[in-house]
Amino acid sequence: MFDKIHNQEYYYNCNMFICKKEIIDKYCEFLFNNLAKLDKSFFIHDPRICGYLAEYTFGFWLQYQNYNIKAIKVKLYAK
Length: 79
What we know:
The chain is an all-alpha fold. It is 53% helix and 0% strand. The protein has 4 helices and no strands. It is globular. The model has no long low-confidence stretch (mean pLDDT 79).
């Protein structure tokens, strides 16, 4: 599963999703239980590390749960 997700051309960035409350509750429980286990020194070096890990982890979690996913492309515009 890691190779499949790691080699795809996209990932679920920005931690944006629309779903049923039960699904997001289940994901947040999984995510924050695991983030709490990390060595706190990670956060000192890069305070944004939780966000990066959450973005990367979301794809793995979705695949593992075998949810039916509908992804919508979002364009980013820079000034």
